[in-house]
Amino acid sequence: MQVCKNKNSGKYFIYIQDTGNDECLLITPNVEMKSVRADLFNEIEDKDEASLIADGLIAEAQVERLRQFEKDSSENNIENISYLLDQLSPYELNKVKEIIRKRSELENQ
Questions:
Q1: What's the angle, vertex CA 61, arms to CA 59 and CA 62, rounded to 5?
Q2: Are 14 and 27 in contact (CB under 8 A)?
Q3: Counting CB atoms within 10 angstroms of each CB, which of 32, 69, 84, 108 has the fewest?
Q4: DSSP-derived secondary structure letter, 15
């Protein structure tokens, strides 16, 4: 799990992504999702989720919020893909099917 430590408070925030303009999207210790200035935090670190919780550095509620965000993002991506597929011509759709078939074959090797 990617986390970063606030330079002022010393609290850990769950890192989600950069949002541009030197800001990043984080899940705060108060379980809020916020875009904040990246320079307020130390470097992003990869840490073990279980250890972070056990050490009291993040709360389970923060992790639950992250999982909900990931689920919502995934569902939104699927809806967007479905919409885009509906916009394709039969030729374009066949090309997409061919790409998917080739990728599937590569994964099964």
A1: 70
A2: yes
A3: 108
A4: E
Flag whether pLDDT at 45 surpasses 90. yes
Residue where the block lists tokens 């330079």: 7
Name residue 4's beta-bridge partners.
13
* Structure tokens given for 39: 């320079």
* pTM, full prediction: 0.75
Residues 71-86 pLDDT 10s: 999 998 899 899 899 9
Rounded to whole angstroms, how far apart are CA atoms 59 and 81? 33
Q: CA torsion angle for 55, 60, 62, 63 (degrees, to 10)?
A: 100
Q: Residue written as tokens 């800001």?
A: 23
In angstroms, the CA 44 to CA 3 distance is 6
Rounded-to-integer distance, Cα 99 and Cα 41, Å: 41
Label each residue of 65-90 as H, E or C: HHHHHHHHHHHHHHHHHHHHHHHCCH
Hunting for tokens 């689920």 — which residue is that? 71
